[in-house]
Amino acid sequence: MASLIREWVGINTFASATQTKLLELLGKLKQENVNTLTILVMGKGGVGKSSTVNSIIGERAVSVNPFQSEAPTPFMVSRSRAGFTLNIIDTPGLIEGGYINDRALEIIKRFLLNKTIDVLLYVDRLDAYRVDNLDRQVVKAITDSFGKGIWNRAVVVLTHAQLSPPDGLPYEDFCFKRSGALLKVVRLGAGLKRRNKQDFALPVVLVENSGRCNKNENDEKVLPNGTAWIPDLVKTITEVVSNGSKSIFVDKKLIEGPNPNERGKLLIPLIFALQYFFVVKPIERAIGDDIEKESRPSWDN
């Protein structure tokens, strides 16, 4: 289900410094003739996808309840400001019972039919200290659904970023190790070869959606390293939009994959050629030999 396009009033709830930065960034997109931006938010359940949508919009556009399961269907929030339209698509988690939720994935793909994905936000938690095969499966499921090119338009978002790292590890070091481990899994799950790493240089942004997030002297929400994270996230999104890669248009072929009948049609000429050289040609040669023998004069001894 998608919402109607509404005036983006939530931007007025941000600190003045944040508003100024956001409007400046959106103005740059408009200068590049980008008047509509569609962001797809995906990941496992319970990692903060819906909360991140609400933080970007600046209002409670998507229901968030830690004691209830996620909504079973995607939801698109659309907001407009000064001729610019922002669409953010929240999606259910891709894991159920320790496995990929194929039904949820299919619902997401059907929802996205005939839509264009400009940016993918792949969301996980900064305070999830390990990565495992389940993370790889989620990345592979996204790649199989939308192609490797989706990662050229992606930002890795790590939520719950206002934390104290374990064992007294410096904050920047912990963030580097955590993001590095996740990026390695993304490359493996997406099937990206070593030579493709530069082509798929995924940016990582830290996010803290809690109302208890620290603030700076300008009343902006900041991380322990002092970064005002909302402008930083939007800035990274605009950089992805302008990186020269193509947006992902979700058509029927992308969702369903190549038509097996169409693949068969491509093989027909090859099959005919093989039949001719290995079946028809030998028969013609044998018949020709027989005719030649019969046409020869026979001499009595």
TrEMBL record:
Residues 34-258 form the AIG1-type G domain. It holds the Pfam family AIG1. PROSITE patterns: G_AIG1. It comes from the Eukaryota. Mg(2+) binds at S50, Q68. GO terms for biological process: intracellular protein transport. GTP binds at G46, V47, G48, K49, S50, S51, H160, E208, N209. Keywords: Chloroplast, GTP-binding, Hydrolase, Magnesium, Membrane, Metal-binding, Nucleotide-binding, Plastid, Plastid outer membrane, Protein transport, Transmembrane, Transmembrane helix, Transport. GO terms for cellular component: chloroplast outer membrane. One of its GO terms (molecular function) is hydrolase activity. Its EC number is 3.6.5.-. It is an enzyme of class 3 (hydrolase). SUPFAM superfamilies: P-loop containing nucleoside triphosphate hydrolases. InterPro entries: G_AIG1 (IPR006703), GIMA/IAN/Toc (IPR045058), P-loop_NTPase (IPR027417), Toc34 (IPR005688). It is found in: Plastid, Chloroplast outer membrane. Gene3D superfamilies: P-loop containing nucleotide triphosphate hydrolases. GTPase involved in protein precursor import into chloroplasts. Seems to recognize chloroplast-destined precursor proteins and regulate their presentation to the translocation channel through GTP hydrolysis. Homodimer. Belongs to the TRAFAC class TrmE-Era-EngA-EngB-Septin-like GTPase superfamily. AIG1/Toc34/Toc159-like paraseptin GTPase family. TOC34 subfamily. This is Translocase of chloroplast. It comes from Juglans regia (English walnut). The lineage of its organism: Eukaryota, Viridiplantae, Streptophyta, Embryophyta, Tracheophyta.
